[in-house]
Amino acid sequence: MALTINNGVLNGNRIDATSSLRWEELGDSLFGTWAGWTDWNPQPNDIDIEVFVDAGSKDSWTPTTTFISDGFVSVDLLYGDSVDSNGEIVSPTTVTITEDASTYGEAQYFQFNITVTTDSNTELPFITNPSMSLSRSEIREEYLKNIDTSTLSSDSLGARELPTNIGVATTMTITAHQEGVTYSNGELQDRVYAVPDDYIFQENAIVVNIVTKSPPTIRCFDLNGESIDALIDARIIGLPAIILTENGVQTAA
Q: In this structure, are residues 61 and 133 in contact, taking their beta carbons and an 8 Å threshold?
């Protein structure tokens, strides 16, 4: 693990914010003079640090980080398959980690960018003991039953993201057992196929394609190759999604 402090000062195992006030600005500050100086660190800057880990090989890993902090914390996860001569991840995928479950992908290199800013309850932001670990020991298995893909949040009919706390799937088994909902002006419509008289097929046949495993996303389509919605069951095995907590980035429940 490598820790880089872009903005902040290391004080033992704690990183404190630096002041944005300069000596040349003292006369125009609230203090006015050195004798009137009352605060060692007024007008604190944001703390900006990077925590980097090389996993040694590309694989499915769950990246987590722990820390103690005071202030408003925001965290971005960057990951990729190679680094440049400066040790920077080349063309990384970036995910902003929030209190909602976040997914990620297979990679060799992982980096958390952590920013701590002053909030209404904080005089001096700090962060203590920032660390990062990679794990693949916590394998989870989830079952989804009778999911109508038309109800899933997605901008595309051809890419429906499944509701799961799996961060990166290693195995996905999808069964479509009923043609989904096709609406026109709010009314359910029958689907009509124009095929040769000697063409034989199962009228309600549905094909399911896995679009991505991170996040677990599928596409359902009919025998004409048209994207449709369907009622599906799913079995998903993989590593857990991650969330931002007061103690760092941890696996979702």
A: no
